């Protein structure tokens, strides 16, 4: 039996990217005619067929769900997987997890791997590189083969499929409203650089809430962090040089880091300023003081994604209508905010 | 094409456990003759063959490694996966992860799922239930089919295969030695109940270190915790009623919980007592004070396990000699211990 050639092998042989191979096989005009011909000839020679096992097994159910996530050392993704597992088990499905490590190529390779007869459908959150490239060929391909895909958290409008998200802007807005209701007006923001879409949305929510409450935006209170490893200087400078009574951080690492640095500088949370973080992970629960946080409800998100996928897999007829479910967030009040 | 019947389906049809089906198919005398005959007849009728795809594909490499771990919302397992991913990627292998959720049945099902042509070999850590049952048929089966298995952390002597572990007893011993070298003699222990093997080994290391240093063992300073959710009373009672100057906790949740409870009771770590935890996770890094901890080197463990598996997969001849690698632990000094 001759070994099946993969996208990855074609890319390596011809010294082009996986994306180029994928687009060439679809005859995309983004790729030069010369390259397209070369790729197509090679694919023909080695009998490449896109996910050909998947095609032949279209009616053979594996009762397995493939999950592709960017990373695993991340409490949020781990809780989403737990939620997916719960619903999968309740319905007699197995779950297989692959990691993209934030790489486009690995996302494509994993998708090809799992689409080759191992799974009935996918639940996925996009890698950073895929979002930057805006290349979703691999996802569109499995969908066109009849394998449903549900995206969660990091999604794109460029692919028609079911999606589960939280309303990041509204969640941040609610956190700021909480501060305002406690009488705070000098509210600082620790956020990411703008190309991280969820960071951007949370920043937008912060700005909107301030505007809606007639609070003037003070750019000196907004700190954008590119690299969590080297953020101490920026946060220390904020704590030492600026006057604020509350701080909203767009993730829990920023929140806990600001509390630790304040401590070192002789300031106390929540006596000197209150802190609200984002993502209800174990850091927020176990830090001292424990951290008030926007809960993303990862378990609920995973459960919903699994339910949407299984519903679609078990429906007799194909349904062309896709839905986007918005999971409600809520504020978990803890010691880092005054009551 | 007729669908292949699985162990799980046979178990469900005949209303027996997966373990019973597996043993019956191997003609094990642990199972009554009546049940064995019933299972074998059913299996024959439905043309069951153990991992028959795997057998036929023995010479077809998938270049994929299957990982089976007990749970994912656990920093240690997540870091091991990262280590495996690193070495797998360096060697052109893909990685697929399945979770047993601490269930024997799920471990068996996942193994069967992945052995059906999806992977070349396995890296796994046993589920609690598998360790309690001491039933390793499913693992012996894939090994006998020529698929190598590497076990890490939670391993068993009952299966011959490559293993990667840390020396839990020695690691605990070293932590206590550190306390003794700082002049502490009243050392408390927060540990698990004895049936958790790693907890037991760490307790043994604590006891041995005390004995070797001529320190009398005080049972009042040893607290065994069954349930992390309901451990506060026991720990508070230790802090309020006992006199000790150092505390060793066999995991980071116990360590951080004792620090928080001490705080609530008006005691300060490390001024009133020093704390060393186990597992260098994000809680230890980000708690206030940050926690001195025994690092299990999950990344290193994952890298080593992946290297052992890939070496075995790429060797021309079968090697009957298995090795057990011991990963060195080290103490990461932080604020919870006096310097």
UniProtKB/TrEMBL annotation, chains A, B:
Which key words are in the record?
Answer: DNA-binding, Transcription, Transcription regulation
Q: Which Pfam families does the UniProt record give?
A: LacI (PF00356), Peripla_BP_1 (PF00532)
Record-linked InterPro entries: HTH_LacI, Lambda_DNA-bd_dom_sf, Peripla_BP/Lac1_sug-bd_dom, Peripla_BP_I
Q: Which residues form the HTH lacI-type domain?
A: 5-59
A single GO molecular function term of this UniProt record: DNA binding
> Which SMART domains does this one have?
HTH_LACI
User: Matching CDD domains, A to Z?
Assistant: HTH_LacI (cd01392), PBP1_LacI_sugar_binding-like (cd06267)
Name this protein carries in UniProt: LacI family DNA-binding transcriptional regulator
- Which species is this record about? Flavobacterium ponti
What's the source species' lineage?
A: Bacteria, Pseudomonadati, Bacteroidota, Flavobacteriia, Flavobacteriales
């Amino acid at each position: 039996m001759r070994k099946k050639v993969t996208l990855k092998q074609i890319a390596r042989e011809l010294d082009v990217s996986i994306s180029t191979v994928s687009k060439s096989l679809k005859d995309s005009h983004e790729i030069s005619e010369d390259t397209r011909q070369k790729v197509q000839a090679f694919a023909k020679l080695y009998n490449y067929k896109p996910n050909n096992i998947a095609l032949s097994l279209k009616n053979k159910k594996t009762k397995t769900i493939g999950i592709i996530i960017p990373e695993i050392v991340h409490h949020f993704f781990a809780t989403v997987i737990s939620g997916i597992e719960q619903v999968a088990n309740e319905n007699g499905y197995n779950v297989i997890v692959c990691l993209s490590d934030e790489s486009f190529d690995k996302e494509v390779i994993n998708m090809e791997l799992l689409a080759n007869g191992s799974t009935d459908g996918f639940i996925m959150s996009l890698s950073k590189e895929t979002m930057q490239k805006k290349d979703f060929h691999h996802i569109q391909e499995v969908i066109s083969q009849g394998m449903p895909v549900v995206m969660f958290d990091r999604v794109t409008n460029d692919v028609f499929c079911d999606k589960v998200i939280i309303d990041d802007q509204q969640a941040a807005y609610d956190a700021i409203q909480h501060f305002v209701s406690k009488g705070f007006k000098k509210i600082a923001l620790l956020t990411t650089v703008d190309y991280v879409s969820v960071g951007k949305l949370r920043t937008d929510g912060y700005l909107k809430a301030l505007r809606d409450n007639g609070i003037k935006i003070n750019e000196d209170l907004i700190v954008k962090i590119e690299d969590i490893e080297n953020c101490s200087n920026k946060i220390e400078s904020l704590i030492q040089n600026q006057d604020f009574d509350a701080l909203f951080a767009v993730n829990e690492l920023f929140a806990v880091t600001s509390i630790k640095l304040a401590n070192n500088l002789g300031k106390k949370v929540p006596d000197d300023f209150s802190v609200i973080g984002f993502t209800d992970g174990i850091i927020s629960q176990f830090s001292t003081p424990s951290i008030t946080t926007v809960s993303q409800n990862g378990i609920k998100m995973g459960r919903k994604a699994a339910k949407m996928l299984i519903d679609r897999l078990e429906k007799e007829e194909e349904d062309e209508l896709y839905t986007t479910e918005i999971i409600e967030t809520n504020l978990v009040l803890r010691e880092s905010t005054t009551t």
